[in-house]
Amino acid sequence: MVEDKLADEKTTETKENTPDQTKVVPRACNFAKYRDLIACLGFTVLSFVLRFQGIDKNNSVVWDEAHFGKFGSYYIRHEFYHDVHPPLGKMLIALSEWLAGFDGEFDFESGHQYPDGVNFKFMRQFNATFGALCTPVVFFTAKTMNLSWPIVYLVTLMVTLEHSFIALSKFILLDSMLLFFTATTFACMVKLIQLRGCQLTRQWLWWLLLTGLSIGCVCSVKWVGLFITLVVGLFTIIDLLEHYWNKKESRKIYYKHWILRIINLIIIPFLVYLFCFKIHFLLLYKSGTGDASTNSLFQVNLEGTQIQNSPRTVMYGSEVTIRSHGLSPNLLHSHVQLYPDGSRQRQVTGYGHSDGNNNWMIKFGRTTGRYLDEDNKRLNGELVPVRDGDTIRLFHVRMGCNLHSHTISSHVSKGNYEVSGYGSEEVGDEKDDWIIEIMEQLDSANTNFGKEDNEVLHPISTMFRLRHKDLGCYLASTGLSYPTWGFHQAEIVCKYSWGKRDKSTWWNVEDHWNDQLVVDEEYVPPKSKFWTDFILINFAMASSNNALVPDEDKYDYLASKAWEWPILHKGLRLCGWSSAGVRYYLLGSPFNTWLSSIALLVNILLGMVVAIKWRRQSIVINEESCWKLFTLLLFPFLAWLANFMPYVMMGRVTYVHHYMPALYFAIIAFGSITEYLLADYCTVKAFLAFLSMVGCTYIYWYFAPICQGLHGIGSHYFYLQWLPGWDIAV
Prior knowledge:
repeat; 6-stranded antiparallel beta sheet; Dolichyl-phosphate-mannose--protein mannosyltransferase; ArnT-like_N; MIR_motif; elongated; alpha+beta; 730 residues; glycoprotein; single chain; Trefoil (Acidic Fibroblast Growth Factor, subunit A)
């Protein structure tokens, strides 16, 4: 290839240099080194200035500060909460609030003004630091990719002056942290490509470790960090295949490569992710808004829990709430609404929050021929405990119906039976009956508390299954949700279980009321298990993410489609649009976004041309030139694709800020394609880079108000209204 020939020519020229000329080389190298160092520092300072500039001009809660600022305050107050994102980013926000001396009392209500005692400026500056540090990271990345210094400076300036990056960095959000760790992950991967020739050295191992730590951090801020992880995974597969085809390498060395990558790129990121949740649980030890997303054991161990000590033996006639042990740990619930089809009987759902419609009374099964006395508490004057193997009937206290199942298909999952609320105390049949199967009994955390009867049902500590007397299927929570007619509550079915350890069929009594019994205050509930809590919380996060779907009956003017982002079809107002306040508009720089989008199309065409030429043997691609193509063309494009395509395919609601990581890689792709196409034209390349830097700077200055704050009436900014979808001046 041309590049290889140029490299050979440069090598020959170096060998033929005179002694006087060779003395100049170190000076040139030192000059380039100090030039790049000064340039990097200059860009970084500029990045900090632009992101810190006027950061407190809008002294109200802006956009998602209402969420993430509030989540940070929960850590200050140690109150448990639930969110769709992993905890690292929000714990860093909590750290900024703690450093700012915040007491956690302000609730971050959207649009509300920050009180005088809340140092929101420092909190925003802490967040902006992550955005500003993307500048030296992209500089390092471009240098490591062996881009020439004009292109390195151009790419760095584009990231520094990107309006959307600046705007998002100014507020208490996760986006700047996500972008920073995404950038460091890619930078570490590029460094590993550069160090391919010295693998298994101490330096290579260090960068492999840093890659794993970056992956762990980016995935611990948002799950979308998995997108850049996929690119690292692809690079790793290619690298290992190359080792596999290297016949000079021993199998021992080859397996060592596998082990090191498994440890650093899989185990270490997972440990980082796990560690974040461990700290998360340790900090949030009080009852809070997120209790409903967890199981009974987790809740009962929180300070101030709503689950109170109750009588330790569940009797017939007791009123109880029953919580699932499945991946969606909701309480068994029923309400007045009917199924729209199927049996058209009362809906039975899973609902996480405390509600009177969660209350059931345990009665003798209809097939037992036994009935409680008139007081609904005793049988022939005696209290009777609920035992393993008993046939019971669950009677809904408010609706006056029975928990019932029949051979009607379930409404969301396939292959299961519907569970409904049917009949009354007088009306019913054998399909109202369920058999108790006790699966596990947990001992009290109080070692002085006596051992309880393992054959009897106890609140909190007894895990049991309910097998339908007639059908033989088990009451289960599928982890799926009903559509709008079921209020998006959890689906409850009767299913044939794959085994006894199928936790979707396990239940426990959470609350227990019986005025004929005495509460044992010495009982201390068992501690919850970290692994169980970890798995359940992550599944609850996934369920909440899946629930973020567009409402077809409601127009969301803030939402946008993925296809709109690369062409800047639409922006996003980050706050109220009153002319009396300072306003921010989330929109990518037209210079950066449009040029980078064109570059991505050129990348595809260029890749096709190279592939066709190689196929026709018009060019010879050796190992080094292949990796050069990977570094300049393949990996930046794949990083963009991995961070863009999921939003095209996913059904959840999407917004402009979701494009930020993809835009970062589109900018890098623009620089690398320019470098590749103009490799033989150094003067032209430097001139075009200079012109581009001037254009980038001018466009930043022109559109600066959208990220630095719009003041006064909107008509002053009609000059920014380039496209009809930009509602800046309206």
